[in-house]
């Protein structure tokens, strides 16, 4: 079976779109990182994505409704131990606090998928983002050894425990969301238990001019579902049609769940892959987030679920293999969905 990192190997990115700025050393924002001022924020502070308690007997219905109207929700009572989340955050902080030349030892290769570097979407924008990331697929041990030759066991252990817990939760959420469509795991053509996944540690360093920078530019996730821990510092925003950009308020202990492109295709666009971005913290705080991308094995086909089409709906997307879609997205970014539209 082809792994996700093997798929990414087919699409190399130029080094200048991989190496982050040495954020520790800059006092002003270089022109390469200055974005036009945006004034497209919604002024409606009351509007926000739903909060769903996984123990709520109505969770199936609420999750279906949230996916349909928002493409995202926050989940509480999800069973991920809070100390594990704190440990991941603290390991991420330890990583991003390393001197720039040390982090460069784990730099992502031009044709690689894992390691330290800028966001993969960087080549699609004229300016650089105020962001550095670290991507893990499977075991992080090789890059962790490069970062900390004698002291990497804790990092690897925490990351691996977190991935295991996230996988279980993602499966549970998949079950819940599909149930809202009256679809069961058996109706799927792949094994939900052996997904392709990635863990992304994001760092948005403290910025001398946060109003003129961008943390992570608007995008949709290529995943089926994404589970995000965004620490206590705000920054995540989602785009709501007719309203504009809305902040997703950090709630202690909650995880943000969003619909990715693969669920969008599978649900025949009933559950929209939500456009989102991360802004740099306005108060100059260093912000961290941890995203778990839960996907479908790369050799599998995705297409709108037959069960949904029985009810008279025509398919809006042609069938693609996950591998084909991941490459389409890597090369065409936001055009990818429209390229498979029927
Ligand atoms: C991502 C993402 C948002 C955030 O990693 O894909 O959207 O708040 N992150 O860091
Ligand atoms: Ni995202």
TrEMBL record:
Extract one GO BP annotation from the record. Answer: gibberellin biosynthetic process
What cofactor is this protein dependent on? L-ascorbate
Q: Which residues form the Fe2OG dioxygenase domain?
A: 195-296
Enzyme superclass (EC): oxidoreductase
Q: Which UniProt keywords apply?
A: Dioxygenase, Iron, Metal-binding, Oxidoreductase
What pathway is this protein said to act in by its record? Plant hormone biosynthesis; gibberellin biosynthesis; Hormone biosynthesis
**Enzyme Commission number(s):** 1.14.11.15
GO molecular function, one example? metal ion binding
Pfam families for the chain: 2OG-FeII_Oxy, DIOX_N
Checking PANTHER family in the record gives:
2-OXOGLUTARATE (2OG) AND FE(II)-DEPENDENT OXYGENASE SUPERFAMILY PROTEIN-RELATED
This chain belongs to the protein called: gibberellin 3beta-dioxygenase
């Amino acid at each position: 079976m082809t792994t996700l990192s093997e798929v990414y190997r087919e699409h190399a990115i130029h080094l200048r779109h991989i190496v982050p700025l040495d954020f520790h050393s800059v006092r002003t924002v270089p022109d390469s990182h200055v974005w036009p001022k945006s004034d497209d924020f919604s002024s409606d502070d009351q509007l926000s994505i739903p909060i769903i308690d996984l123990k709520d007997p109505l969770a199936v219905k609420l999750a279906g409704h949230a996916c349909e109207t928002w493409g995202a929700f926050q989940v509480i009572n999800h069973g991920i131990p809070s100390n594990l989340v704190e440990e991941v955050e603290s390991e991420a902080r330890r990583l991003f606090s390393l001197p720039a030349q040390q982090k460069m030892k784990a730099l992502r290769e031009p044709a690689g998928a894992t390691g330290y570097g800028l966001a993969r979407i960087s080549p699609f924008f004229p300016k650089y983002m105020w962001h550095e990331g670290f991507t893990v697929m499977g075991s992080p041990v090789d890059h962790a050894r490069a970062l900390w030759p004698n002291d990497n066991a804790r990092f690897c252990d925490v990351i691996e425990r977190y991935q295991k817990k996230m996988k279980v939760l993602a499966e549970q959420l998949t079950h819940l969301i599909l149930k809202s469509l009256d679809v069961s795991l058996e109706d799927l053509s792949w094994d939900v238990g052996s997904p392709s996944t990635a863990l992304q540690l994001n760092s948005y360093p403290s910025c001398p001019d946060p109003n003129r920078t961008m943390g992570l530019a608007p995008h949709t996730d290529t995943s089926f579902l994404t589970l995000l821990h965004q620490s206590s510092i705000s920054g995540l925003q989602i785009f709501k049609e007719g309203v504009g950009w809305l902040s997703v308020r950090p709630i202690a202990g909650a995880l943000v769940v969003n619909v990715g492109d693969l669920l969008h295709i599978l649900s025949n666009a009933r559950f929209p892959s939500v456009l989102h971005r991360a802004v740099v913290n306005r108060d100059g705080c260093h912000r961290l987030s941890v995203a778990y991308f839960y996907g479908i094995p790369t050799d599998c086909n995705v297409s709108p679920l037959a069960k949904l089409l029985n009810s008279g709906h025509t398919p809006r997307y042609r069938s693609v293999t996950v591998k084909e879609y991941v490459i389409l997205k890597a090369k065409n970014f936001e055009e990818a969905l429209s390229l498979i539209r029927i």
